[in-house]
Specification:
434 Repressor (Amino-terminal Domain), 4 helices, globular
């Protein structure tokens, strides 16, 4: 007799990613500035594609939008991937120059 694979009643809890009125990352604004300063400019969808090619399929256009808006935290490994996809250093993501 074959058993059905049942989903857990208690899916994994997601980490809290929103604090009312506070930025949740320091790099979102710079990611947007750098992305739009590239020639030709890179869309959020393009950036998501570059990240997917590096193995970060979870960083979708929607997630990139949330990062740029400061509504999502960014892991250190994601910072490295973002910098690589934008062809800049990680340090550049923390500066205010574009």
């Amino acid at each position: 007799m074959r058993q059905k694979h049942l989903k857990s009643k208690h899916p994994k809890k997601r980490a809290r990613t929103r604090v009312s009125g506070q930025l949740l990352n320091l790099v979102g604004e710079q990611v947007r500035k750098i992305r739009l300063a590239l020639v030709p400019f890179v869309t959020q969808e393009d950036l998501a594609g570059r990240l997917a090619n590096e193995g970060f399929e979870n960083l979708t256009r929607v997630i990139i939008n949330r990062i740029e808006a400061g509504k999502r935290t960014v892991l250190d490994i994601e910072l490295v991937a973002l910098a690589k996809a934008l062809r800049v250093s990680v340090q550049r993501l923390f500066t205010n120059r574009s």
